[in-house]
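re: that complex we talked abt at group meeting.

here r the seqs, copy pasted straight from the sheet so there may be weird spacing, ignore it
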Amino acid sequence: MSDTGIGSAVKRREDFRFLKGIGKYTDDINQPNQTYCYFLRSPLAHATINSIDTSAAERAEGVVAVFTGEHFTEVGGIPCGWLVTGKDEKPMVEPRHPILAHGKVRHVGDPIVAVIAESLQQAKDAADKINIDYGELPAVVDMKKALEGGGTAVHDEAADNMCFDWELGDKAAVDEAFAKAHHVTKLDLVNNRLVPNAMEPRAAIGVYDMATEDYTLVTTSQNPHVIRLLMGAFVLGIPEHKLRVWAPDVGGGFGSKIYHYAEEAFVTWGAKQIGRPIKWVAERSESFLTDAHGRDHVSHVEMAFDENGKALALKTDTLANMGAYLSTFAPCIPTWLHGTLLAGQYTTPAIHCNVKAIFTNTTPVDAYRGAGRPEATYLLERIMSKAAAEMGIGQEEIRRRNFIKPDQFPYQTPVAVVYDTGDYDASMDKALELADYAGFGARKSKSAAEGKLRGVGFASYIEACGIAPSSLVGSLGARAGLYEAATVRVNPTGSVSVMTGSHSHGQGHATTFAQVVADKLGIPMDQVEIVHGDTDKVPFGMGTYGSRSLAVGGSALVNALNKIIDKGKTIAAHLMEASEGDIEFVDGTYKVKGTDKEKTFGEIALTAYVPHQYPIEQIEPGLEETAFYDPKNFTYPAGTYICEVEIDPATGQTRIDKFVAADDFGNVVNPMIVEGQVHGGLVQGIGQAMLEFAAYDENGQLQTGSFMDYTMPRADDVPSFDVTTTVTPCTHNPLGVKGCGEAGAIGAPPAVINAICDALSAYGVDHIDMPATPEKIWRAINAGEKPMAAE
Amino acid sequence: MHGFEYAKPGSLTDVGTLINDEAVFLAGGQTLIPTLKQRLASPRTVLDLSGVSELRGIHVQDGAVGIGAMTTHDEVANSSEVQSAVPALAKLAGGIGDPQVRNRGTIGGSIANNDPAADYPAAMLALGAIIMTNKRQISADEFFTGMFSTALEPGELITSIGIPVPDQAAYAKYEQRASRYALVGVFVAKTGGNVRVAVTGTGSDGVFRSAELEQALSANFTADAAKGAKLDAGNMMGDLHGSAEYRAAMVPVMAARAVEAAA
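got the structure back, here u go
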């Protein structure tokens, strides 16, 4: 292994420009003759639009054009990328999602009027002169009330506000197991709604070239080809060869920049209407109101056990909030990315999951770091720890008794998926050791002596990454394939350009993908360029989400590299007058086995482009290969997290004292980047558990619409993490990798809440909903029993 | 931001000639600038006070600390004079916002704004400060008249603050977790044997003195005495970050911590 190859903690090549502030984000890009767009948005959650008077705005200084929903009746609505079919075989209700609201607004922030002016200031001044007559309607906010109906429907197509009623698993088997159970644990819980809050707000620039009739959209996207497909084919009717989508440097996404948004379609369409480029950049308050939110489930969970603490069955009933419209992947999050993970790391033989998806007058909800898997892990890992407490079994012990053992893989779960590999005891062992679990009792006594409550919480999560086999997801309702593409272009002098469909918006692909190339071709990393994010440069791609870049995009890259190596063998055999079967490629050199004859990779590359002495009857000149990789299965990262908290009972204020993460991500290309991903995920998970909450009032107003009220975690909210990895390589992709981007956000919330509940157990507290604010904890302490005598 | 006229006077005399009824003073701008950017205010004139050197500086004499209105939080926090005369005030200033806020925000701006969750008003009230303006002197008890409301008249400008050096003082702050403003901030001061306790972040009408705590601590200046005080939740504000009941319960807890720190 070289010092830049697979497994090396190479420093991130992209960080120089990011740390120096010389990255190129959408807002850094300006077009000649550019105009500025301001969207006038609904201040109401639910209202009819009786009339819009834009006449004064149209006459205002600097205004170029003003558009309303009337202008979009001929244009497609924003499409949904996944069709979920309910248990009654009925397809989900899929209401139209217009570019600009038409006739009705359905959430605060719904765009109504687009004002285009010479400057943003002028656009805003003009927007102040627009008069909209609303007919305010009752807002549908609470999911249980939404289902009850009461005459208020977000969409006429769904009178009861239900998008679909979906189930997975064998209900009869579950009922039978519950009937003979020794112990049943029950739990009601809320998975709190979150705002993604990427550091870079969304932005879009639309450009239309009248000479060539080409459109360009510069946008903050995790998947520019997907936007080209969704917007080009379904919204605006622009064919691929006339539409370039470019997502340059993107400052974080966490899922929120997967989806196709109205603003992108508007600036692309509008640029042709006015004959000038249009730029829009979200302000932070717009991000709060219009970036798709995450989570927002309300669940009832029951789990049945035998007398030894072995799980017999699990049943879950969940209400999942879709918000006002169906965002691109919204329907698959609480269904196929949630129900399929309910086996967790356990051998639970019978599982039934019911999910009702509900429309409300709130911001649309879609995938957010983890996407369905955090919700599944939270309810499963919470109920495992609650059951352990009820049955008097240790949190680690109940998990061990239920773990799928290494010799049981591949393991068919009762919820459709097949785990390829894993060793759950190994990560538990490593986590226990790092956490100094043996010393917990002493630390608890020390806390007690200082008047503090200490608790420990476990979470053994599993997730499904590397999405996904196209035929499988197609059968589940996906309206796209989920392969990935890579092109490897070896330049004549031996340097390499990689065009990958994976998109990096913080993940560090410029480093990790280059490490893979350097490792496979035996060339220095500085000879490798990673190109992504531009449909004009990259042949095709499905983008980055679901921790799929290395598992799927990296596999496409390896396959393309193998084609390059193979073609090089043919050239090398010809040059060295040897049989192709006698050529081996080692450390960047083609060698004839058993001889001292060899050619460097650079010599072969040059020969491919200067084919004077060349096997021209066999192969074409040039050295460039493309591979599309369609995964054979999901990958299944898993691990155990242990969290230790200390609570001040006088205030309920809680400090995380220790947090240990032992993850199995399969093989690791860059351990430093993996550790960074885990840290980031853990902070987001801890944020969900203790701090973050997108709260709506009964009128559908977002109460936490700025950083003054929405608590983003900060450095001093989290401890110094102890993270480590164990390795069982993925069995079905060439790098043996599983994906590491979401694990922290998936495993942390139940570990934190389990620790808090453990600390409060002396007060008879067995559940605290997220976010576990000091007041909630203080109230639980004061409502509870008096603490039992110190152990 | 709406358009406005901008003026940068070089002296208090210049300020006097530039004042008009639709003018606002720009001190550190930590509240005004965001308000302007959100188009929530449209003053005709913004008078930038950063060029008025008479408004800056810290002096200790005759048992009192004088602080110019345009003195930044960072300057107060790092002033050796404040640190030795009223360490609680230096510590309070060092805990406002973040370094960016502390390098821009000023004591005069904070007091004039009287945000119900700001730190300085509690210190002023508990320390019995005198607010000096271009027209008069106002005692802290008379100055703070309710949430975002002060005794300042239109065109009246705080020039400096005078603080009697206390025997003992400390500030304990329970931070609202998102904004890190005070959810409950309690400033306890004993000056010339008199105990004054002021509470910020909590009152339904802004900063207030707690009679319950002053009574308890006058009788017995101990943490336990503070813990025993009971405050009426009916006078507290409540929001997502803490109900009125919770805030009322946290005041004695933070007061006790302040007393411990003051010892």
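couple things i noticed - The radius of gyration of chain A is 28 Å. The first strand of chain A starts at residue 35 and ends at 41.
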